[in-house]
Amino acid sequence: MVYRKISWDLKDAALRLWDLGWEEVDIMQGLVVSRASLYRWKKLFEELGTTVRPPPPLVGRPCIITCAVLTACYNIYQKDPDIYLDELQFWLTIHHDIAISISALQENLDAVGLDRKILHKIARECDQQQWDDYWDVVNNDLSGDSDLFIFADKTSKNDHTLARKYGRAPSGMRATTDAYAFNRDIGYSVGAAMSKEGYLAVKVLPGAFDSWDFLEFVSEQVVPLMNAWPQKHSVLVIDNCRIHHNDVLLEIIAANKSLLLYLPPYSPNLNPIKESFIKAHMCCHNAEILATADPIVAILEACGCITAEMAHNWFLHAGYR
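The structure corresponding to this sequence follows.
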């Protein structure tokens, strides 16, 4: 008789018929099963109380890294997330007498969710007390209403930052392109002002922003959109870059009866416009702006991808309610 899978209910039915006094031959012919199967099911039922064979025990080599060791590895990466695998391999050898290959160690770490990620770098110069003082001003002195704030900052684009870095090719072959210029051509600086409603003003110019370029951008394109304190859009927030410290800028903001607030040093996480630059950079990538006849117009059009919903979410992510 050829092998076929027999369901558990048919096995149970065969044993019930046997208990009711049916002859073995009749059961075999009626259910199309063998005598050996009948006796095997009966033995299983007498030993285990079921006709279903239990799953076989685990086979293979025992696990080299125990749960306790994996927990220790997890704690190490919580403290020092930039540990290399060969360093962890050496640590396991010294402290736990475990010899394991790099590939096996990688598989074990992946299995417990310790993934390889880009390091989120925080400047050593970052002062938590200054961050606390900033939030105290925002939440207490300025009521914590994010509708009051306009964030202004700048970024830059050139043929290096806008070049595509990844492509596809058959396995074992390189993905090559001749569209990349190794000599650094002219770059463009982008100044932008953003509220929860999205970008309010954008300025693009060749080269880099200096203090007077930034002052001109704020005074001509941002301040006219601001209101007197404490109305909506009455607080301009900028970072502590040296070119942003300008007495003329303070006078212009004061004449508009608005407020100027500086971010703490080394605090990009508090500036939602930084995340918008990442999105705008992606849009510039897709548009291949440096290949257009007028890159400045192309950059301005690419900045139109920033929506009010995006800006609102970036404000929330930065901690503003």
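The chain is about 45% helix and 10% strand.
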